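Recall that a protein's primary structure is simply its ordered list of amino acids. Everything else, from secondary elements to tertiary packing, is in principle encoded there. The following example makes that idea concrete.
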Amino acid sequence: MLSQSVGPTRCPDQVGFIADLAYKTRQLVEQNAMQEGLGRLTKSVTFDLKTLEALRSDKGSDEGKVFNLVRGLQKEIDDNADAAPVLQSLKGRAERILKDLENRNTTGLAAMDLLAALAAEKDAAAKAAKETGLSPKAFAVFWALRAEPALKDAAIDPLNIAKETEKLLVRFPNARVNADEQRQLRAALYRPLLGLGKEERTKIVDLAAEIVSQ
């Protein structure tokens, strides 16, 4: 009877050598990954000006720093649902900065400067939220509309729209999940915007309704 070949048999010393080699290789890859910014998932940071300025002087790749800052912003959104409506816009812009850096369309220094501007905007939003006393969603409406040209041209104060939204959220507490309440809320939002053209009015109501439904 022919014996079946099962390949060469390794002695215990060979097995130990191969295992040791694999371990050392993995360590080397992980160390290089950290140096090159590829191991960036291992660190979580807070997305604010203080942290960003501290990171500027740290060793490591700019790509890794930018990634961790964007990841920190995502974590804040996940941990604080009330802040999400305002932070989502910042997150989208921060992710575009990271993408541009990864695609070499911008430099690390420029990316950090752009993130610093977003962090400053985040701090300004937190301060303004306290000053207005609005609920998180009503404030998110104000923050999204604060620089809307159509409102400025029609001399409509975005803070008044936000305050009206606050009242409507009390009247229609289930607007996020109830289609009938959402229609009534939208209809009520049109009234203080009658000074705008139809397209501008619809755009602003759509934006406010989207924020409320988040």
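The chain has a mean pLDDT of 83. Residues 12-36 form the longest helix (25 residues).
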